[in-house]
Hints:
Blueprint lengths: L4 E10 L2 E11 L4 E5 L6 H8 L7 E6 L2 E2 L5 H6 L2 E3 L12 H11 L4 H7 L1 H21 L15 H13 L5 E5 L7 H16 L3 E5 L3 H7 L2 E6 L2 E6 L1 H6 L1 H8 L4
Parallel strand pairs: 3-8, 3-9, 6-7, 7-8
Antiparallel strand pairs: 1-2, 1-4, 4-5, 9-10
Helix pairs in contact: 3-5, 3-6, 4-5
Bound molecules: adenosine-5'-triphosphate and magnesium ion (MG).
The site of magnesium ion has 4 residues, from helix 1.
Amino acid sequence: xxxxxxxxHVTKSYSGVRAVDDVSLxxxxxxxxxxxxxxGSGKSTTxxxxxGFQALDRGRVVLDGVEITGWAPHRIARAGLIRTFQxxxxxxxxxxLDNLKLAAQQAAPGGWLDALLRTRRHGAADRAAxxxxxxxxxxxxxxxxxxxxxxxxxxxxxxxxxLAAALMPRPKLVVLDEPxxxxxxxxxxxxxxxxxxxxxxxxxxxxxxxxVDFIMNLCDRVIVFDxxxxxxxxxPAEVRKDPRVLEAYLGAGA
Length: 254
Ligand SMILES: Nc1ncnc2c1ncn2[C@@H]1O[C@H](COP(=O)(O)OP(=O)(O)OP(=O)(O)O)[C@@H](O)[C@H]1O
Ligand SMILES: [Mg+2]
């Protein structure tokens, strides 16, 4: 089966520093792929490159058989690839519910302008979005907070809201940059359950995380970066016992 996402020889430098160095990788359709590696190893830059937030110096990105290299972020989102940010991004002034409705509109085929112009269709779309949003809020434990401005949520709650926002448009591929950083252990297990449920329903994930247990429990495949390159690519069991990974990242005690 062809990969849902493929990166071929992706290279990206920032003023002479090679953040991503000739990386080729594939994300299997309906899989949960983990991406781990030390601070500064190029994980977020890779996400920026595959989601259109940074231009590549070299290489190609192919989503579901279509080359998307050089596409703008909103176009990539509409093609079905939604990403979250390591530094959480939510609309503080909007309510929790409206954050999710907006996320649905931004990735809709016609976009927000189309939605505004076709008010009748907008009404139906709005009701569908509200229903989907409430479903997700229940899953992440924020149902009681739907009417409050996102500004008053805790950092961990904002992380969860950003996760729900990414899931709103039912993307083909969800790319998460540190989804559980700052989220408490009980809630992390719930996030794990949510991701498993969505995975069982056919969703594909690429997840960057420093929480190695979270990655190893959840992922069917793990890619390890070191200094902008792929150090290892295998099953969680293979990655755990690879001596290079132990040395570069997991440490002797892992
Ligand atoms: N916008 C930028 N401008 C300049 N340098 C950058 C920029 N973004 C990242 N870098 C540099 O690129 C390298 C890779 O950074 P990146 O953020 O991709 O690493 P990471 O693996 O996501 O790290 P972390 O685990 O700490 O989030 C680092 O040396 C970083 O300082
Ligand atoms: Mg990062």
